[in-house]
Every structure is written in structure tokens, then in C-alpha cells.
Amino acid sequence: MSTKGRYTITAALPYTNGPIHIGHLAGVYVPADIYSRYLRMTGNDVAFICGSDEHGAAIPMRAKKEGVSPQVIIDKYHSIIKKSFQDFGISFDNYSRTSAPIHHETASEFFKKLYEDGKFIEETSEQLYDPEAEQFLADRFVTGTCPKCGHEEAYGDQCEKCGSSLNATDLINPKSTISGAKPILKETKHWFLPLDQYEDFLKEWVLVGHKKDWKTNVYGQIKSWIDDGLRPRAVTRDLDWGIPVPVDGAEGKVLYVWFDAPIGYISSTKEWAAREGKDWEPYWKDKDTKLVHFIGKDNIVFHCIIFPSMLKAEGSYILPENVPANEFLNLEGNKLSTSKNWAVWLHEYLEEFPNQQDVLRYALTANAPETKDNDFTWKDFQARNNNELVAIFGNFINRVVVLTNKYYDGIVPTPDALSEVDLQTLAELKAYPAVISSSIERYRFREASQELLNVARLGNKYLADAEPWKLIKTDEERTKTIMYIALQIASALATLSEPFLPFTSNKLKSILSHSNLDVESTWNDIVIKEVLLPAGHKIEKGELLFSKIEDTEIQTQLDKLEATKKANEAENKTIEPQKDTTSFEDFSKMDIRIGTIIEAEKMPKAKKLLVLKVDTGINVRTIVSGIAEHFSPEEVVGKKVTVLVNLAPRALRGVESEGMILMTETPEGKLVFLNPDENGVNPGAVVS
């Protein structure tokens, strides 16, 4: 298990251009929280640091879309994001924001130090410029075809399909997202960090030094980048939103967000240390401190190549001990998308599943995308809750608490001599903290969550084998021992579950009256102490830790997603281009009239065709129409319709059709009659 030490734990700074969804929670914040809570419980000095990233190009993009200032956007979403983290028990020691004065000051000082030490290259180069908007384009304001995988909607800094990091000038057929115009190249001066100068350092530090202890997905991406050859990367941008470049001759330029955002970890640590009366520097500059970055795979290059190169260039900072990046979480088979509303938003989840934060935390941990992309499904979520949390964890605790209150008025009974089974069960219990620790310290949180559940399984098996509800009738003393052992397991679960299920842990500690114990129980107590809940200790009445989730609740969520899918399809449905121009004379040749359908029947052996009798006002005629998949014969009888009456007759399956019913369709593909429902519009009325 972890030896006492100092840890700086960072979680990726979320962009304040939208709320937080389950992909963020699964990929970064729950694993980081599990790790940080565990380290605190094992006696370590932990600074768990995060904050809002408020300078990305996505912020002014969102502001333009909503017609407000960037400040309005960042204030709105900073508040929503911060509350979501609090609601889900993410135990940051500090949650800051990059718009804070301390961050502007820290980032500016960092830049000036590298600038004064000659670590940058100053170059005049050609950058993409929007001639209609009359401004240089940040990478996120440019989209085009990825030169590596051919994805047609890649951004100027990254292709979200293949994960390649790009420069905007790499894109094929680029266009401005501001005006839609094709960008031109225009000269501008910027400062660059020469990453190529740090290749040898990175090879030695990562490819040699961390070959065996870093995740293969992280190591592989770093190796690919280095093998491909690193190039200088701009640290400044022509924008009016961000931290002004703090040197002469840089008017109208700001620090590039990838440069300023990771410095946000440092400024947030400074903010925390000042509030707590601590010295911030040991958390970033002491070689005995372990720095760990929790991120998603789209941030690997920034945290494993660029930020370490910045820290190396500055010279006084430690480098990360590990960067356990996760892959992506998909939702019901499709990629999570903020812009397409294909997500489970945390604030909405709590409205629909109140007080069930731990259920989502557990489901996301048990299915975490640690080594490959994984899929979140509502059915799996339901199964994790009903079959694991309710049936295993909750069932054990409920049995123990109910029986203790029933048999002993909530008083922990005094045990008799322990049997071999009792001793074996306690020995197994004492082994679990080390097993779970090993998984956590190797960043295998899925594995750790299942080992936690195995503690509850141990308790269930012990009770099922001993059957105290039967034994109480024949051997009261043995029953006391059984319940005593079961209560020790329950107490251990209250402690071991805290990193994973903090709300459940608190509830269970309250039921077991942990606050009345002499000292607060720690992780290592389960191994060291012979007794966790002493005889004579009184517990409270029970309450269910988890409740079953019904099929109807899950169907509601699936229906929401289906509605989102249809809305996206409707929005993305292409409008047919205008046909070639026609003359008024050609149009006037068409005789379009109002008719009424008076009879309808299905065409034999034809899936799509209805045979209609239509009163056109001129006469009653037969029209064959391909609408049978959308309407039954009974539905259309009596409907007024728009008819092209002078269309040349055409034989369809042996039936002569004398005209055409005019239709359109909804974005979802449903056929709709062009139907004049106004009173007084009679068959034979001419449409002109």
C-alpha cells in the first residue's frame, strides 16, 4: 500500500463552453477523485487541483453563437461545472479558473521567464486570415479535411476522428467557421517553443524511463509523435480573448490556450496554498513530490510532450510521475457530442435520478475506458445498479443492519470463540485493502471497483453459509459471533467504499455510528486493528443504500436519446438544391387542382402503392400513389389533396394512373399531403 508522501494530482481543466457530461466524469474526474481520496485515506499529503479553462477559442465561438460576451459564457458555465463537480463529490482541494488574476499573473511570469532565458523562437509566418471577418483565425475557427485520415470536419488544431494534432495550415480545403469564407494566408509575428530541441530529453524521460510503468495507450501515442519528429509550436495567437502576451511588440496577441491552460494547475495550487496558509512551491518543485495528471486521450500530447517541455525549459519544476490518460466513452454506440446534444448531462441526471450520484460513479468506474473506448448504455447502468449495488452491496448491509437491530436492539454483540471459518473470513477481509490499493496505485480503477464489490460478496457468502436467521432459534451464542463478524465486514466496507462511493460511505458510516468510535477509521485500520466495531457499540436503524431502477426509468432515458437522434437527423438533412430555372410559360402548362379522395385500396402485391379514386372537380379519376407505407386506405378517404391533373396517363402494374398527388415530407422522412384545409376550397379549385 501507499507509503506516506506528497502528491500533486491534477485533473484536466474543462472548457467553460458547456456543461459536464458522463464522458468527462468517466474519463478524468472520477478516476482522479478515487485516486486522491485513496491517497488521503492512506495518510498522504495531497493537493487535488483543477479549474475552468476559460481562454479557449471555443469560448468566443459559443459567445458569438449566443450573441453575448465571452465573459457571460465563462461565468455561466464555470458556475454550472463547479456545481456539477460538487454534486458528484469530486473532492478538489481547489477549483480555480484561468480568468482569475493569479492565473494571468502566473502565466505571464512563466512566459517572461522563458522569453528572457531565450527559450523561444520569434518568427514571422503566414497564418490563416478571414478576409470577410477581417481577423486572423484561431485553430478552432478553422475546419477542413484532415490530411491524415480524410475526415472532412477536422479542426485547425486537432482531428477528433483520428486524434491527430494539427496546424490550421495543414487542413485541406479549410474554411472559416466565422464567415464561411475560404481563409487566405497573411503574415504575422509569433513566438514558438522549439519542441524539436527537447526530443532527446523526451526520449530519455518517457520512452526509456517510463516504458514499463506508463499505460501502453499513452506511451504509444508519445512514441508516435516523437518518431514522427517534433516541430516548433506557436505559444502566441492573434486573438482578443486571452492573456495578453507580456512583451513589447505583441499588441493584439494573447498566449495560446495550450500554453496558458496547463499553467492553470500551478496558479490553482498557488491560490489553494495562499488560502490554506501553505507554501505552494514544494507541490511543484520538490523532487520528492509525485505529480500525476489525469486526462483524456485527446490531451496526451499536451501533458506528455508540450507541458513537460515547458517545465524543462523553465528549469525549476518537477515532471509528472505518471499521466494515466483514459480513452473515450461512447453513449449507446455513438460518440458523445456536446454540439449534437448526444450526452448524459450531469445536472440533468441528478434531476432524474436524485441522490443517486454513486450509482453513476460506480457504473462509470466499472465500465471505464481505461485501455480502449467503451460504451455507456442505460441497460448496463441499470444492471450495474440492480445486480451489483442493490443485490450484492446493499443486500449485505441491509441484512446485517436489520438483523442486528432485530436481535440485539442495534448493539454489536459480544462474540464467542471464533471458528476456523470466522478466522478465515477475517483473514480474507484483512487482505482486501492491499488488493484494492494495488489496483488503485496501478490506475486500474475498474479492477479496484470489482475488488470492493468482492468484499460485499465475502459478507454475503459468510451470512448465506451461516444462516443466522435460522441459527438464532437453536444457538444464540454462535449467532452473536456470526453477527459480530458480519458487522466487522460492514464497517470495513464503509471505509473501503469511500473513494468509489463517497455518498454511500457517509450514509453507511452514519448507520454504523462511526462518529461514536474513539478515532476515525482509516484504510490501514482494516489490516492493523483486530476490532473495527467493538462489542457494545450501538448502530442506527437501517435505510436502503441503493434502490432498484425500473425499466420505465430506463426507457425514459432511451426515449430522450431517440428524440435527440431524430432532431439531429432533421437538422442535418440536406435540402435538395434548386432545379434549373423554368419559364412562366412552362409552369403555366401545369394544371394543378384541388381534389378529394373518395375511395382507396392497396395495390395487390405492391408494398408502396395505393389505388385512389379522386374527385378532381372535372371528373372522378384513378390515381396510383406510392404512399402505402405512410398511410392506410382508411386514413386517406375524405382528404382534400393537391393534384396535377394534366399529367400524361401512366400504367402502373396494369392500372392506368391519371394524375399525381402532390406531397412533401418532414425532415424525419414522413410523407405529408399538400393539403388546403381552409373552408370553401372545393374540388376543382385551380392552384396557380
Write a structural description.
With about 700 residues, this protein is of the alpha+beta class. It has 21 helices and 26 strands. The strands form eight sheets. Strands 17, 18, 19, 20, 23 and 26 form a six-stranded antiparallel beta sheet that branches. A four-stranded parallel beta sheet has the order 3-2-1-13. Strands 5-4-9-10 form a four-stranded antiparallel beta sheet, with no helix packed on it. Strand 1 (about 5-10), helix 1 and strand 2 form a beta-alpha-beta unit. The model has no long low-confidence stretch (mean pLDDT about 90).
| Helical amount | 40-55%
Major sheet characteristics: 6 strands, antiparallel
Taking pLDDT < 50 over at least 5 consecutive residues as the criterion, the unreliable ranges are: none
Helix/strand/pairing class, anyone? alpha+beta
Q: List how many beta strands DSSP finds.
A: 26
Strand content bin: 15-25%
Average pLDDT taken over every residue:
92
Coarse morphology: flat
- Cα end-to-end separation: 84 Å
The value of Rg in angstroms is 33 Å
Query: What's the total helix number?
Result: 21
